[in-house]
């Protein structure tokens, strides 16, 4: 590599470095201004147990779901339009 191409390569590398620093400064400024702050997630006010039945008569249980006070969700079986839900207030 001759002297001229070495200087050009170093100049290009410096320009890329300056661009990266500028981008980091902009991102930091946005973060400090709240532009990149994560969204808050509201936790439920109660845990909810829902029991799902095969028909409107609600005689045969076919599924269950649970939403916990910590925001976790679990389900087993089938979810149907025929259900009963029970709330338990969170502490």
Count of folded domains:
2
Uncertain residue segments: none
Helix % is 25-40%
Q: Output the helix-strand order.
A: HEEEE
**Shape assignment:** elongated
Mind telling me the C-alpha Rg?
A: 29 Å
**Distance between the terminal alpha carbons, to the nearest Å?**
71 Å
Strand order of the largest sheet: 3-2-1-4
How many alpha or pi helices? Answer: 1
How much of the residues is beta strand, in percent? Answer: 25-35%
Mean pLDDT: 78
* Biggest β-sheet description: 4 strands, antiparallel
The secondary structure category is alpha+beta
In words, what does this structure look like?
By secondary structure, the protein is of the alpha+beta class. The protein folds into two domains: 1-39; 46-89, no CATH class. It is 33% helix and 31% strand. It contains one helix and four strands. The chain has a four-stranded antiparallel sheet with strand order 3-2-1-4, with no helix packed on it. The radius of gyration is 29 Å and the shape is elongated.
Task: Furnish the topology, listing elements before pairings.
Layout: H1 3-32, E1 46-53, E2 61-67, E3 73-77, E4 82-89
Antiparallel strand pairs: 1-2, 1-4, 2-3
